[in-house]
Structures are given as C-alpha cells and as structure tokens.
Amino acid sequence: MKALGRHILAEVYGCDPTLLNDIKHVEKVMVDAALNAGAEVREVAFHRFSPQGVSGVVIISESHLAIHTWPELGYAAVDVFTCGDDVDPWIACQHICDQFKAESVSATETKRGILHPWGPLQQGASHKTDEHLKAPATVGAAR
Fold first, then answer.
1. Where does the entry annotate site (Cleavage (non-hydrolytic)) (predicted)?
2. Dihedral sign, CA of 94, 9, 60, 90?
3. CATH class of segment(s) 5-112
4. Of 55, 61, 68, 127, which residue is the catalytic one?
C-alpha cells in the first residue's frame, strides 16, 4: 500500500557531546543530511540552549528534518519526515548518525497517509482508537 510519506523517529545514543552542542555543526549535519537524501532545502531554524543543547528544524520541499540534542547524555532525538518517492529518509538518518559518531541507534519508520481499512476520514472528523486497539470509533461525524 502506498503512503504519502515516510516518517523516521530515531533515538541516537553515544554521540560526541562536543558535536551535539555545536550549533553550527548540528545545522550543517542536518542540512547536509537533507541534501544527501535528495531533498530540496527551503528554510532552517536552530537554537542553542544554555547551558547546553541544540534544537533545530530543516524545512524541505518534501517535509522536514528535526533534531533535539542532550550533549550531557550523548543523546539526540531525530525526526526525518519525507513525502514522495524522490527522497530517502534512511540516507538522511544514516548521515546524521555517522556525523555525530553515534555508538547505537534505535529507529522506526511509520508510513504516513495510508488509507485505513475502515475508509477515509470525512472532512472535519477524526478517528479515535480505544485501549483495546479495535477498529476506531468515529469522533465528530454523524452516525
């Protein structure tokens, strides 16, 4: 089944703390990751926190890349979301892990925008899944 987008969430551990705290390095890594994956970079926004840590986003024509770093823990939370068939989010994710010298990574991919078996959402409606993971009840739509 074709998805509108691919969304990777990566837990990146054992990174070089100095690199994670260097805002210019973090921004370059993220922009280069987007470009290496075949994306078109539109805008970037990064912020360094005191006493440490960097958060930032690279907006691409195909969606976004985001990062939040905890240098004191050698950890980064990475988010790579791409739409279409021309950009490979795994290439971006691998580049990021390599550039921060990660010792270990846990990553998952979620397909976004897949038509659910119970049909498309009606405009203005949403689906809510109960705690038993049964087919969702429609919220906000006439029954």
1. 62-63
2. positive
3. alpha beta
4. 68
Q: How far apart, in whole angstroms, are the C-alpha atoms of residue 129 and residue 135? A: 7
Is 50 in the active site?
no
Tens of pLDDT, residues 26-55: 999 999 999 999 999 999 999 999 999 999
Query: Active-site residue among 15, 83, 93, 97?
Result: 83
Residue 86 Cα distances to 40, 54, 123, 129, angstroms: 10, 29, 29, 32
80, burial (CB in 10 Å: exposed 0-12, middle 13-18, buried 19+): buried
The radius of gyration of the chain from alpha carbons, rounded to an integer in Å, stands at: 18
Give the span between the Cα atoms of 48 and 24, in whole angstroms.
Answer: 10
pLDDT (tens digit per residue) in 71-114: 999 999 999 999 988 999 999 999 999 999 999 999 999 999 88
